[in-house]
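This part of the workshop introduces the protein records we will be handling. To make this concrete, we reproduce a full record directly below:
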Amino acid sequence: PVGAPPALGPEFDEPAALFVTIRLGERLVGCIGTTEAVRPLGEAIRRFAALAAFDDPRTPRLTAEMLPNVRFEISILSPLERVDAASTGDAIASLRPDEGYAIEQGPKRGVLLPQVWGALPEPGRFWAALLDKAQIAGDAPWPTLTLSRFAVTHMHEPGYRAPEAE
C-alpha cells in the first residue's frame, strides 16, 4: 500500500537501546534515545528520529528547509556495564575513549556517546561534561552515583562523516 513503511528484516524486530543523532553540517540538530532495550529496533529508530527532529529541548525543531542538508546517525548501544568506582578519581581513571557512558544519581541521568570523545579527548573534561549533562554536582558523594559504560554500533547514511566536535 502507498505510504506503508518498507518491510524490514527480522533483526529490526529485536529490542534495542539506541540514540538517533541529527546534524546539519557540523551542528547538532537533535539527539534523543534510550539506554534500555525496550522497543524493537525498527520502532525505536522511527520513534527517536521523530523525537530528535521535533522534540529535543536543546535545539530548534527540524524544518522542511533543513531536510535536504541534514544527516542521520543511529548509535545502537550494547547493554550497560556498571563501572566499579568509589571516587571521582576512580571514575576518571576508568574512562575509555572508545566507549560511551551513562551516569545516574536518583532521578538525574546523563549519557554521552563515544563520539563525544572527539570534542573532549581529555578524560577529566569528558567526566565534567557527563556530570553537567546529568546536572549532577562535581562534588556529589559516591555512594549516590552509578556509572555505566557501553559500546555502540553505528548506522548512518552513505557519505556520512562524523564531525570532530560535538
The chain has a mean pLDDT of 89.
